[in-house]
Every structure is written in C-alpha cells, then in structure tokens.
Model the fold of this input.
Amino acid sequence: MFLAVILWMPLQYLVTARYGEPYPALAMPSFAGTLIDRGGNIRIANVGCKVLLRSGAVAWTSAYDLLSEAPSAYHDLIMTHMFGPAPTKPPALRAGRFTALLFPGRILGRYRQAQKKLDPQTKDWLRSRMEALYPSQRVTEVTFVWYAQIFNLKQVPPTIVTQPIGIRQVHFQ
Amino acid sequence: MKAKQSIVDHFIFEEYKTSASTLGLFRILFATYVLFMVLPQHLWVPRFPNSFFNPPIGPTMFFTRFPSAQFFLVVNGLSILAAVCLLFGYRTRIASIGLALLWFSGNCWAYSFGKINHDILLILMLPIMQLAGWGKAHSMDARRLPANGEKETRAWAVALMALLVALAMMTAAVAKLTSGWLDPHSHAVLAHLLVNDLVTGRSNWFTNHMMFIHSGLVWEFFDDSTIFLEAAFLFTVAWRPAFRVVCALACFFHLGIALTMEIAYVGNLIVYAAFFDWSALESRSGNLLRAWDRMLGKLPAPGLLALGSVIAFAYLGLGGNPLGILFTDEWDPPGVAVCTLAALIAGMFLAGKIRRYAHERRTNLP
Done:
C-alpha cells in the first residue's frame, strides 16, 4: 500500500500537468505562481457586472452577489468559466468522437466555455438571478466587464493601473 | 541493505504506534468536527443549471449533468447518520467507510464546477484510521463486542496516513518551488493576499495592517518559510517526534492564513490532530471520559440510530448545522476559533518540547 501511494504520485503529477488537477488527487492548495513580475507589478484579473435596467438606469453588481448561492471559493472559477470574455476565435476543440463519447462531461464543459453565446440554461439562470437581485425592476442587459488591476508596490506611493481585458454581453430581449 | 530495510520496517510498524484510547479520542474529535463544521454540504449544487457542469478528470467526467436535489439530501442524510455512529463508535467500520464513500461522492459533483477543494485527506482518514483501530476505545463497539475488543492498534495505518499527509503537503511545496516563490524579487504571499483582498473580497484588520509592511525581507521570509514548512512534512515523516513538531508549526501557519486571508483551513488541523498524543487529555479529564464510556454502555443501538435520524432531519430541514446557521458570514468565527485553539495547543506542545530538551541538556552536563 505504501508503494502504491508513492507510485501514484508521479502519475498524478503527469495527469495534472497534461489535463489539470484531477479529482480525486492527493494534493493541497498550491497557490502556484507569484503573480508578480520583476518590475514589481502585481496583475490581478477582476470582473464587474454592469446591469442595464429597462428604465435606462445602470446598476453594478459583484460576482459575490451574483453567485451568492455558491461558496465564495467557487466564485472566481465559475465567473471565468461561465461568464469570461467572449472568445474572439471560433472554438478549437480537437476532441475525437471516441473521446467525446467516453468523457462527455469534460468535452461539454470545454465546448460551452468556447462559445460566443451564452448557453440558454445559463441565460435563464442569469435572468432569474437578476429578478432576485432587482425584484422591482426589469433587467434588459448584463455586461460582464473584465479588467486587470496592476499594482506597483515599488512605486511610492503604490500605483494602481486598470486595463480592460474583455467583455461578455447578455441581452434579455 | 538490511539496515535500510529495518529503517523502513521501523517506520511502517513501530514509529507511529498509538494507543487505542488516543485513537478513540481522535475519532470523537473527528466526528464532532464533521457534525458541527462540515455537514450538511453541497446542498447548493442543484440551484445551478446543468450548463455549469464542468468536471475535472475524475468520475463525473463520464456524465453530462448534476444529480437532482434529492440525491444531495440522501447523501447528506446518510452522512449525518454515519457521523453520529462514528461519534459514538457504533459499527465504526461501516460508519467510517460509508461516510468516506458518501463524502467522496458528494464532492465529485460539487467539484464539477471546476473548483476543487482540498479535503481529500479527511476522506482518506476515515477508512485508514478505521484500519488503525479508532473504534477500539471509547466506543459502543468496544463495549458491545468484548471478544473483539482487544486494544491492539495498527501502527502501519497511522504511518500510512502520515505519508499521505506528507506527500499531499509536498504537492503544494513543489507547485510553489516551480513557480518562482523562492525568487527574492517576488513576494508571492503579498500578491496572494492582494488577490484575496481585491478579487475574493476577503479583507480585514489584519490584511490591512499587513499591507503596511514594506520590507521585502519580511515578505520573502513568508514566501520561503511557507515552502520549507510544506516540504518539511515529507522530510520528517519517518521520525514521529519531528513530524509532530512540523504539524505544530503548521498550526501557526494556518492561524496566520485564517487571520489574514479569512481561510480557516480547519480540515488540515483535524488531520494533524491524528498524530497528536491525546493521552494527556485522558489523564486530565479522566472523569469525563469515564462518564462518556458509562453512557456508551447504556445507549441502545436503536436509540442511537433514532438520534442520528433526528439530527439528520433537523440539519436538512434547517439547511445547515448549528454553527453554520449561527455564523452565516464568509468570515468564519468558529473556524478562526478552532485555528486559535490549535495554535494554543501547538504552542503548549512546542514549549513542553523545548522545556524537556533544556532539562535533558542540563542533566547531561558533566
């Protein structure tokens, strides 16, 4: 059993490097990457949800409020996967028919992320969330505004620069 | 060759010898943690449509959708029942293995959003500590089956658990080592604190004050010591006293994370507790333990199952455990309290070690 555990580890590293972290895996949170470059810049991707109401007013909501039904640890990943900036290139999925047949969940997940348009189920869910967040108003459009905040802690005082990354728009009409 | 073999044999069969009583006390602690801080879990999953399904490599990649809400209710109901049985040590083997399987199956679906929480050691602990013999003391099993109630425990199972912990911690160290954490120009802890503050929104008094530290040396110390601590588990696993010291130091590390990043990683503290010598508690609260053992003798099995069912219905009806209902905010006071308590126990343990070491040095002087 001890030997099996030791032999499992290289295999796990191999799978993780090739396909991402599997579950189950004998692993702890990695916090990999320093997020900081040699110039002392810390680049952080963030998202804001711009909500256009029928009255013409604009409201902003956070990923935290939008995904409040899920634990906060999930928010970042769900936002990136489900509402990340719309891809500019057509999806480049190279999954064979056999792979798709054997691992439908994996392939579907990657396919959905590569789509420009939001899945109808996701759109319906988003609409219901908007109804819950803005009960007395009608939401006509949600725009996920992705931006990078670049902190330079070497500057005195520290500087913060904001750069746009991309957007994903969802219309409800 | 023989010497090497004897070292391996000693590690597997001798180094982690633990009394049945210590394992029994750890079982009670583990079950209490599960009942008050873990279950019920994943009840939120069915609130999301199947389009959110994005499984990692694992059992759920063969599926295309989440199970129904009833699935999570049944999994949680049975898990709570198993955890109650584990607490009182009733049918410990079935309860341990059952809880592990239920916990794992629930996780598989919850992690099919693409996010994996690293609680695998807690799941592995259930069958392994059952093999070690955590049901052989302070349990209904020990009283119900006196013929099988011999107090012999399996040291190899505890050693296996220690090896699993060490290898798991090493994955975190390797990930940091290979991604520039040791680079003196990078301050990874600072960057991760910032992300946690600005993206995840977990910010508090400690975080704000940490940001005023402008010394690169301090931040580099945090980066390097994190890697050394995570790697130290594997380097000390063959020698239990040193492994315990690393576990104790890790308690301070987790308290630091709980205070600054608001991530109370209580699960790992419970894992480290498996290697702690709980006999000290036994000598200090002997009356309480004797009362517990007497109560176990009077508790009928149907009564226990009824109690488990009532707790399951109450938890599922309320949608959470008592602590979860009391503390709904992201800032997790019970988690921070447990981290603080663990750090206090670890501090006492380390102080005792230092005192003993100093005493030995003094007595060995010519």
Q: What stands out?
A: The CA atoms of residues 26 and 274 of chain B lie 6 Å apart. The mean pLDDT of chain B is 90.
